[in-house]
């Protein structure tokens, strides 16, 4: 069971806007940055969003991130077939044993 | 361009020790704030963070696996090594090494390790 909670699946049609949520707690999302990753089967996961809403160079502006309290969201606008992938959120968690990385369980995005 | 590549056995027997090597390029491990971490993903399951080592040799481990993990670095070889003792079939997973200046920024392709007798 993952520390961060994501819906297992999401879907949309080409051109549509979809959002994927990520819920945590005060020890992780509530007090640290959220990162988002895109994972296509058989490839290395790719950083999509860092520090809640920053897009690395090369990531289309169709992808955007936001955070409010202990939850975060990834929005994908102008959905394209190549966006079909698994998406993961991640954050530092201020664990009693020391800071650790925590991930969401992943959301499988289907482009209908 | 930052690249990372994992190498090691594809098959280990239960109770054996797994040793994985991450060979990287495109960055210096002497730069402040830089870390190399390990993350795994069992088939059909979510990502799980394992360990992290920083440029200054500071190390962090997943609390649930800490007793089984050791991470070391060889800056001269641009390598980071992860060892995991007492392997079990539930440890079957794709193991990734990652470059980090906070959370993972770049990932290796991953290597599938199967634990089976």
Key terms:
heterodimer, A: 112 residues, mainly beta, three-stranded antiparallel beta sheet, 9 strands, 45% strand, B: 117 residues, seven-stranded mixed beta sheet, four-stranded antiparallel beta sheet, 11 strands, 0% helix
Order of helices and strands of chain B: EEEEEEEEEEE
Number of strands of chain A: 9
Largest interface: A-B, 27 and 20 residues
Mean pLDDT of chain B: 95
Shape of chain B: globular
Span from first to last CA of chain B?
Answer: 39 Å
Helical coverage of chain B, percent range = under 10%
Overall outline of chain A: globular
Write down how many β-strands of chain B occur, each being a DSSP E stretch of 2 or more residues: 11
Describe what this molecule looks like in 3D.
The complex is a heterodimer of chains A (112) and B (117). With 112 residues, chain A is mainly β. Chain A is built from no helices and 9 strands. In chain A, a hairpin with a 6-residue loop joins β3 and β4 (46-49). The radius of gyration of chain A is 13 Å and the shape is globular. In chain B, a hairpin with a 3-residue loop joins β9 (93-100) and β10 (104-107). In chain B, strands 2, 4, 5, 6, 9, 10 and 11 form a 7-stranded mixed beta sheet that branches. A 4-stranded antiparallel beta sheet of chain B has the order 1-3-8-7, with no helix packed on it. Chain B has 117 residues and is mainly β. Chains A and B meet through β7 and β8 of A and β5 and β10 of B.
């Amino acid at each position: 069971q993952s520390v961060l909670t994501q819906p297992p699946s999401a879907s949309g049609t080409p051109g549509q806007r979809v959002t994927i949520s990520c819920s945590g707690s005060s020890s992780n999302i509530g007090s640290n940055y959220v990162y988002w990753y895109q994972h296509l089967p058989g490839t290395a996961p790719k950083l999509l969003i860092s520090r809640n809403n920053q897009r690395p160079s090369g990531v289309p502006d169709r992808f955007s991130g936001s955070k409010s309290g202990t939850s975060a969201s990834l929005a994908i606008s102008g959905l394209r077939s190549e966006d079909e992938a698994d998406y993961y959120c991640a954050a530092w968690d201020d664990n009693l044993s020391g800071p650790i990385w925590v991930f969401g369980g992943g959301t499988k995005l289907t482009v209908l | 361009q930052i690249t990372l590549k994992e190498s090691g056995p594809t098959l280990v027997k239960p109770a054996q020790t797994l040793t994985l090597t991450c060979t990287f390029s495109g960055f210096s491990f002497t730069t402040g704030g830089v870390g190399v971490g390990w993350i795994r993903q069992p088939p059909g399951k979510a990502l799980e963070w394992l360990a992290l080592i920083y440029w200054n040799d500071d190390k962090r481990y997943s609390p649930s696996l800490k007793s089984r993990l050791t991470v070391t670095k060889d800056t001269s070889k641009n390598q980071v090594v992860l060892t995991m003792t007492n392997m079990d079939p539930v440890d079957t997973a794709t193991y990734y090494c990652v470059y980090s200046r906070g959370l993972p920024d770049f990932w290796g392709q991953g290597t599938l390790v199967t634990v089976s007798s």
